[in-house]
Amino acid sequence: MSATALNQEDIMRWNDSLDEGSPQGVLAAAVERFFPDVALACSFGLEDVALVDMLSRIRPGVKVFYLDTGLFFPETYAVRDKLAARYPAEWIRIEPRISLDEQAAQYGASLWAENPDLCCKLRKVEPLQRALSELGLRAWITGIRRDQAPTRANARLVEWDAKFGLVKFNPLAAWKAADVWDYVRSNGLPYNVLHDQGYPSIGCWPCTRRVQPGEDPRAGRWAGTAKTECGLHG
What residues does 41 pair with on adjacent strands? Predict the structure, then answer.
């Protein structure tokens, strides 16, 4: 059955049947229903590291794609290399249609500061739309958690993603940060060392700063602006 054959009631019932405490159960359901037309969107954060490990135990060779904006921290690329060497996934790199030099020529050298929404659109949203279409996916998997931001508070384990027209799985939706850390540490997984240096949420280097004690974990993303999401999840 195709993803579009699932109606909202089907997806709601499916969501209600899944165990919020078992991301592995959610991933197994996603793989059973949609493999090979399902992929994990990986940004190499702590959640994604955990999901790559879980997926590889369930079904080696699942597609894992990442949106290489060209503005990752060096530490992020280091995690990518460690994961790619360790796990037999189908690693897929997605680039923006426009290079950083072309972007600078058209919009100025610091578009991320002048118009961060447009920068994210060019370097993240459009590449994601293209990836989901060109890869022929019927479902995608994300690492979002409900407690990460108000915009994610209503995330379900499985839902219809009307924005991109396919089923979306959020296996870690009910987990807290401590749950993710416990999984990563107990399994000895590689992770971005910036997490130990005051960066709970890591994006592109021009738009990510350290979070001070007592600040919201996502306060370091697009600091000084009203922006809270890149456009992929809200």
Answer: 65
Angstrom CA distances, 164 to 86, 108, 206, stand at: 30, 30, 27
Report pLDDT for 6. Answer: 81
- What are the extents of the domains in the chain? 3-197
**pLDDT for res 217:** 82
Instruction: Give residue 96's identity as a one-letter amino acid code.
Output: P
Q: Does the predicted TM-score (pTM) go above 0.85? A: yes
97: burial class by Cβ within 10 Å (0-12, 13-18, 19+)? exposed
Extract the tokens encoding 196: 């130990």
Distance CA 103, CA 203 (A): 18
Q: Cβ distance 51 to 141 under 8 Å?
A: yes
Based on the residue annotation, tell me whether 204 is a catalytic residue of this protein.
Answer: no
CA dihedral sign of residues 48, 50, 51, 55: positive
User: What's the pLDDT tens digit per position in 111-133?
Assistant: 999 999 999 999 999 999 998 88
CATH topology of domain 3-197: Rossmann fold (3.40.50)
Q: Which one of the listed residues 42, 119, 207, 230 is annotated catalytic?
A: 230
Q: Closest by alpha carbon to 15, among 144, 138, 169?
A: 169
> What does the pLDDT read at residue 202?
94
Low-confidence ranges of the chain (pLDDT < 70): 1-5, 228-234
Which helix (H) or strand (E) covers residue 126, if one does? helix 126-134
